[in-house]
Amino acid sequence: MKLFDVYPINNINIVKGQGSHVYDDKGQEYLDLYGGHAVISIGHTHPHYVKRLEDQLHQLGFYSNSIEIPIQKQLAEKLGHVSGKEDYQLFLVNSGAEANENALKLASFYNGKKKIIAFTGAFHGRTSLAVAVTDNPKIIAPVNETDDVIKLPWKDEAALEQAFADNEISSVIIEGIQGVGGIQVAPESFLQKIRSLCDTHNAVFIADSVQCGYGRTGKFYSHDFAGVDADIYTMAKGMGNGFPIGAISISPKIQPAYGMLGTTFGGNHLACAAALAVLEVIEQDNLLQNAAEVGGYLIDELKKFKQVTEVRGRGLMIGIDLPAEYANAKKDLLFKHHIFTGEAKPNVIRLLPALNLTKAHADQFLEAFTNVLNNQ
Ligand code: PMP
Q1: Would the ipTM clear 0.90, i.e. be above it?
Q2: What's this model's pTM, rounded to 2 decimal places?
Q3: Which of 18, 44, 213, 258 is the least crowded, having the fewest Cβ atoms under 10 Å away?
């Protein structure tokens, strides 16, 4: 059988990783500023992470959700503590799409309404409702099309107010910083407006934190910058540092009834061990502060480049908008300087490194970036 190539594949075979570096089969070292699309949160093969997963695997890899699983409770307690949402309830799943799917469904169970507000530029996943609220017609199959999703222009407060007028909105789903959409930061006033409209109309505020959450911006949820609490936070990516796990964190105002939520693999012992190890490292090594400091330094330095159109983002979620003449910058960073970065259309370089990136790594990137821009 031939493998279906999901994405255009670079002809590089990565076989090893350590911290912020990965290595190919020829032994070449690369600086990883992409983290497999914001997945590597505490660095590759972190010793504490490896040990915790190894110990768990020796003890018990999996048993069904029909029994008590103490490590799930431990994870809920730790996540509540690190995220500052101790009174929320945790439901564990396997991916970002599954988290959003469950959040949208739970909102509708809660208020009995059907309409969902989403935004231009949004990406929320590829399952049925998740893809319907995503702004990419090319990936929405006819079976996923629905009149219940209202797509509003990003940041448009007037359109938002108008959409609420008929009082039929079940939920609003929004990334605090759009990732796939090119690192677009939601203005604080916009998030506050969503909060107050949701309160007035008994709608559910869903904060998609799959890419912008888990400490990446220097706060646990990027929506925290606006000083608002969401009703449901969805997360995945950095949560397991590469082990598939996602979750929804549910505010006390929503109390799911038995049977509304369920999964076979979600919250399995190994996934919980991975997620706990990540939180322990985030806490012990003060990684929120590191993301804020090293990310802030990178953003400030990048703003000094006269060739750059715009630098967007917070902490270690950074978008560098470049004019079309620098279309080769990402490739040059990879093939000439051995640095992995991400991209977004039309010509945005995305940095989503591990949260323990050092200032020395940041300087290495800045030097390579200077070289790339000067040699186009
Ligand atoms: N939400 C956001 C903001 C994302 O960036 C992504 C993945 N790029 C998803 C949801 C979907 O996550 P997954 O691929 O784990 O289903």
Answers
A1: yes
A2: 0.97
A3: 258
